[in-house]
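Hello,

Our lab assistant flagged a job as stuck in the queue for most of the afternoon. It eventually completed. Since we weren't sure the result was trustworthy after the delay, we are filing this so someone can double-check. Below is the sequence as submitted and the structure that was eventually returned. Let us know if re-running is recommended.
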Amino acid sequence: MKIEYLVIIESDSTFCRDRASFNNFLQSNSDIKIHNNTFKYKNLEIGYELKLGQQEDGRNRFFNIKLECNNEKNIDEFHDLLKSIRSLLHRISDKKPQVLWDDISFHYAQKAYPMIHQIENLMRKLITKFMLTNVGLGWTKDTIPEDLRRSNKSEGIENNNNYLYETDFKDLSTFLFDEYRTIDIKSLNEKIRSADSEKMLASELRNFLPKSNWERYFREYVNCEGNYLQTRWEKLYKYRCKIAHNNSFTREDFKQTTILIDEISPKITDAISNLDKVEVPEADRDELAEIAAIRTSALYGDYIQRWKEVEKNIFELYKSANPEIDEETIRKRRYQPLILLRELLEHGYIGKRTHKEICEASQVRNIIVHEPGHHFSAEEMSQRVVRLGEITDQLSNSHIEVLLGSNKGNDAPETVHQAQLDGV
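-- returned structure --
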């Protein structure tokens, strides 16, 4: 194992002006003895090489130190030796010693990476199995036009069945531990108004509190709070980044990485073994698949958020166009945007082109959410996100026009009949 440092000292400094004075300075530590190319620290002897040089402009001189330990069994003693040397080198100059080569960092990074890789795959296994067995994916394949799915596949990307395989290490934890609400403020207001008792009201308010997927589906079966795992996963992510970005990875880093993995791994394994006990209500499955898709890609997340805005505007336009319909019927239809859309088309509130575009946008959303192996190009998704924003503006303008009484054609009926709303 080789270690190489470069120490820079200002030329006008009288400190360590040559190799001999530099070696004498190092030997001010009574545990260090230097003889020719041998460096002894306590009972450890290693190879040693020291070169002195001068920068071309003459402003600084430098010492190039090379240390080599040939026995990996002595790595701990070698580590302690280097720690003592660094503490001395920091006193020589106000310039931090530069590490030119560090095999010890490589040694510990090489030992840690397979462990991190394993825990990352364990987390992916939990999320993938949960999504596939408890939520279910791919159910929209038969409902999506083949030409739409085929034409939008990114070139050079194979269909991959490994769910969330593109998701970053850090983002894996957000799927499990980020808190979210399942109902919005408007829906909560409607539930509060319709609550028959204080007990029911308290229940609705509790349901409004944001919860993580860990709390919703795993906490009951795994003796571990979500925050315990989340904080440790975030710490582990920092150590992973050190390795991935080729930063210094010390013995202490390796020790902390091992501790974190030993704390996380049993909890994730326990969650996997209890998946058969986890039940996901039918009403929650689509939202879970949506959250997973958002974690997969920032563009997918933008698209889904824009789609939600389109859905909201469809609902608001429908309500303003049909003020006589009771709240209960409206509430039932809130999550059936395409049914509302068809009725808006039939009664002249939107045009055929807009109707077609929104239907296709809905199909794209379903592909994103329920077919994780399918890929859209970044360019196409960016264009679709922009177009959804334009559609949202169109629906919003139509809503305003309806409120002002200027949107309908002369031959459009005044209302949508209740029989039509009931599907007759």
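-- support follow-up --
The delay was a queue issue, not a problem with the job. The result is valid. Residues 297-421 form one domain. The two ends are 81 Å apart (CA to CA).
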